[in-house]
Write a structure and sequence with these properties.
141 residues, mainly alpha, 65% helix
């Protein structure tokens, strides 16, 4: 495991141990053991470094908070906000894509297009009329 990964585990371990016992107990023992076993015991993390958390630590903390610590009602609110943000990002990506496509598209050369062929109206026949026509053709022979 890389040194950076072990530092992330160390930061997680320190922050989780700052939680109340009630909130700490909500986190699965298996996860806590994983964090404790993989942390860098020589890395000194302090509360002063809280503004300099690694991005991975922040992401993992948010997952731990959402999945284990908050109550069900707040979890639903968080998930709804996440979905709204995803939709907004998707919409803005689509708008950017359309803008890029419109700038990158070459003008259409109309001279290569064929003249449209005349269309004949389509008359939908009912089954009874088709049957009668078939009978007439049969008797004509």
């Amino acid at each position: 495991m890389s040194r950076v990964d072990t530092r992330v585990y160390s930061e997680l371990y320190y922050i989780i141990n700052m939680l109340t016992e009630e909130n700490r107990n909500k986190i699965p023992t298996r996860l806590m053991n994983l964090i404790e076993q993989n942390r860098d015991t020589e890395y000194e993390f302090s509360i002063d470094n809280m503004n300099h958390l690694s991005p991975d630590t922040s992401k993992i903390l948010s997952v731990i908070y959402t999945d284990y610590i908050v109550d069900e009602e707040e979890r639903k609110i968080i998930k709804a906000k996440e979905e709204m943000i995803k939709r907004e990002l998707t919409m803005s990506d689509n708008i950017k894509f359309k803008e890029e496509m419109s700038h990158n598209m070459e003008p259409l050369d109309v001279s290569v297009l064929e003249e449209p062929k005349s269309l004949q109206p389509y008359e939908k026949k009912n089954i009874f009329k088709i049957f009668i026509e078939k009978l007439k053709k049969l008797f004509k022979k």
